[in-house]
Amino acid sequence: MPKTARTRRAAAASKAAARARHLPPRPAAPLPGVRIEPAQPGDADAYFPLLLTAISRRSEADLPAPPEMLAAPPERLTHGQALCLVARDTTTGQVVGALAAGAATWIDENPLTDPATMRGFLLAGLMKYRIAGIHAVAVAPTHHHRGVGRALITAAEQYLRQAGFRLATLLHDPVLTGFYARLGYLSTPLLISFTPGGLFGEDHVGYLTAVKPLEPGVELVTVPQAPAPIASGVFPGCTVPAGSWFEDGHLVTP
Ligand SMILES: CC(C)(COP(=O)(O)OP(=O)(O)OC[C@H]1O[C@@H](n2cnc3c(N)ncnc32)[C@H](O)[C@@H]1OP(=O)(O)O)[C@@H](O)C(=O)NCCC(=O)NCCS
Description:
Bound molecules: coenzyme A
Strand order of the largest sheet: 1-2-3-4-5-9-6
Order of helices and strands: HEHEEHEHEHEEEEEEEE
């Protein structure tokens, strides 16, 4: 594969991520005065404007949960297929943090998951079962740097794990790399997932993808000559064997 600006950026990010990995993520301590819980229909006026502060540079359409979602009964996640959490001030009842998550939406943006083909349709279904996306997380400015963001993301990971997701991903502005590194995420311009449909690349100009294994056996593997870390072990039979390398866009196994 020729060395493009993207592969160079990816290599630099892999090095930065490797350094960040050495910072042990701190477990979420109980937060005095703040409770993390599923959003209620009555929270919509606080919940959605707060989430929009997290996606101001992206399109509002990126947020897959319309207000009616807060009335949806729990299914796979707290609100149907969506996870909608709030951080609530236990004294005032006020919403001071918000998070929305579910299956990763970037799965649908790739030609490999074109629903017009049977292969694409099936692959999208498999990936949405295992790879989660945290669509947005935001904390009211009055409550920044008190551990509310950490508590929301840690709670989301627990819900996602229980729902069977094995990998958490989220798209973020590069300035937030330090925040996600403290929570155990690796941020990369390009993520490669080893799927039953082959290697699946995901990138977004101007953003990084933060990624974190949710289960033992899932790993972000650095493969020689690969332009990005490879998510291994997310799907049965899709584990990168030791000694593999990357050549002409393909994984070569020993
Ligand atoms: C990003 C945001 C959610 C962080 O919430 P928060 O409640 O202030 O974060 P926490 O207090 O839980 O911080 C957790 C850790 O990250 C660090 N951190 C917090 N904000 C950070 C930032 N902007 N850059 C780097 N590190 C940061 C904290 O120091 C803390 O580290 P520690 O473990 O060493 O103590 C909040 O600033 C926010 O809502 N921003 C606006 C919306 C937004 O940009 N959302 C993200 C969209 S992807």
